[in-house]
Amino acid sequence: MAGYHRAGVKGRLVAGLLLCGLALAACGGPASGAETAADALNRGLQAQFAGKYDEANTAYFQVLAKEPGNTAAFFNLGLIAHLQKRMTAAESYYRLALEQDPNNIKALFNLAIVRAAVGQNQDSAALYRKVIALEPNYADAHFNLALVLRDLGQNAEAQQEFATAQRLDPKLVAPSAPATPARPASPSPTR
């Protein structure tokens, strides 16, 4: 039943996103049809880097109106929600990005941070392990996995992950007290 509920919510979320994107695309911006999805994505990235999150969100919805499966738009909507501490929305957008590209390392990494932030450390650890399987030299993933493992009481494995993280990036040192995971991965300019 839970899977059915999630599918229904996800379907409504995607439909809502597309309707919002279509409405936003119709309300403003360049002449109809003149702007491509890539143009809207670039405009969104510029706004996002400038801290203009409302403008960025509008641009990303316009991208999705033109290309409903645009991974970068979903990822960047997730990142904005994440930075605004709207974890439920961030998780939804990251999951939508992962539906388009299940091996999107940035989306997996950021989703792992979100899952840890909401107390789902087992899920977070599994996501970090997937990131590491895809990118074995991702020091921040090893470091964050170590933090989560330590919270789960898996201290020996946590120490191994801290050591790997520090070998890959000497600036990463195991904290003596509980710490928060590394910051989310940066905006994605790619599809």
Number of domains: 2
CATH superfamily of the largest domain: Tetratricopeptide repeat domain
Biggest β-sheet strands, sense, barrel: none
Structural class: mainly alpha
Q: Please give the CATH class of the largest domain.
A: Mainly Alpha
Global geometry: elongated
Residue-averaged pLDDT, rounded? 84
Named CATH architecture of the largest domain: Alpha Horseshoe
Q: List how many beta strands DSSP finds.
A: 0
Cα(first) to Cα(last) distance is 33 Å
How is this structure best described in words?
The chain is mainly α. The protein has 2 domains: 1-102, Tetratricopeptide repeat domain (Serine Threonine Protein Phosphatase 5, Tetratricopeptide repeat, Alpha Horseshoe); 112-176, Serine Threonine Protein Phosphatase 5, Tetratricopeptide repeat. It is 70% helix and 0% strand. It is built from 9 helices and no strands. It is elongated. The two termini are 33 Å apart. The model is unreliable at 1-31 (pLDDT under 50).
Name the descriptors:
single chain; 191 residues; mainly alpha; Serine Threonine Protein Phosphatase 5, Tetratricopeptide repeat; 2 domains; 70% helix
